[in-house]
Amino acid sequence: MTKAPATPEAILLVGGKGTRLRPMTVHTPKPMVPAAGVPFLTHQLARARAAGVEHIVLATSYLAEVFEPYFGDGSSLGLHLEYVTEEEPLGTGGAIRNVASRLRSGPDEPVLIFNGDILTGLDIRALVDTHCRTGADVSLHLTRVTDPRAYGLVPTDEQGRVTAFLEKPQTPEEIVTDQINAGAYVFNRSVIDAIPADRPVSVERETFPGLLAAGAHLQGMVDSTYWLDLGTPQAFVRGSADLVLGRAPSPAVPGRCGDRLVLDTATVAGDAKLTGGTVIGPQARVGAGARIDGSTVLEGAVVEEGAEVRDSLIGAGARVGARTVLHGAVVGDGALVGPDNELRDGVRVWCGVDIPPGAVRFSSDQ
Description:
By secondary structure, this protein is of the alpha/beta class. The chain has 2 domains: 10-229, Spore Coat Polysaccharide Biosynthesis Protein SpsA, Chain A (Alpha-Beta Complex), CATH 3.90.550; 259-355, UDP N-Acetylglucosamine Acyltransferase, domain 1, CATH 2.160.10.10. Helices cover 18% and strands 27% of the residues. The chain has helices at 40-50, 67-71, 91-98, 124-134, 189-194, 203-213, 233-245, and strands at residues 9-13, 34-35, 38-39, 55-60, 80-85, 110-115, 118-120, 138-144, 152-153, 166-167, 179-188, 218-222, 227-229, 260-262, 267-268, 273-275, 278-280, 285-286, 291-293, 296-297, 302-303, 308-310, 313-314, 319-320, 325-327, 330-331, 336-337, 342-344, 348-349, 354-355. The longest helix has 13 residues, at 233-245.
């Protein structure tokens, strides 16, 4: 049985390109896009620190140069942070192996690993305790979902041991469980060192099935508290709103939980209405009579008078014209949506694009 250290260390996988989140990730890596007023990564780091983690290695790749200038050595969060950059994309397993030299754990000690795009209420300490109590080689956080077809299924036996990894089943016969891989793990250090170096490796498709076939002990821990994959703009906006509303737990939200979060230096007209966990970023401005519900307005953006914004994401320095309607839309950094437009149902306006007044009354990505 593995003995848990008082403060396990962790790896955070933050190298993805965030393609599904574009245009928000054109200039900003996905973990650095603000959620509830701070880069999303801040919430993950703060929750790890609250669980007793002190040393975290960030596995970076896309726009890697952004992370260290913002977080530095981590001391402001009570952490010691290190950064390792992939020169070529290595996949989840390859990224884990690539940072192994920065770990301090012994071969039989546990290392926490988190995907950089998951917002969760996971009891991190309970996952480590489960790993150590069961003597597992690898432990996985599992969560239950209503429709598991978009995910990899992870069935377990009565003791919680993983019995298989089933990739994205489609037929009713293939859906043997509602448990999915939720993107947080505990690896024994020796398992990390055994991952092949200097080539792409997927933990989901290669490492985990290989370990299972070799007879290793893979333990699942079902924790069905709050869980959300922030891979799409709609999910990201929802996650940010849930942080503000207090539905998703984080010690890093810069203010009280409630219907709105207005950052210092933002300006909001007295008769503007902000609801549903809306965030107004620093130096942003909201005009008279505007209504914003469940949305994120990033730094320096402007929402002019009478605009209606719902479940939308407005990039840094963007401008939404008077009386314009945004429902489920994304406006990239520096874009201008002129007055009297109407954008709905997943429309994405690219960074720097200029939409003239009244040019779009309704559009969809369907």
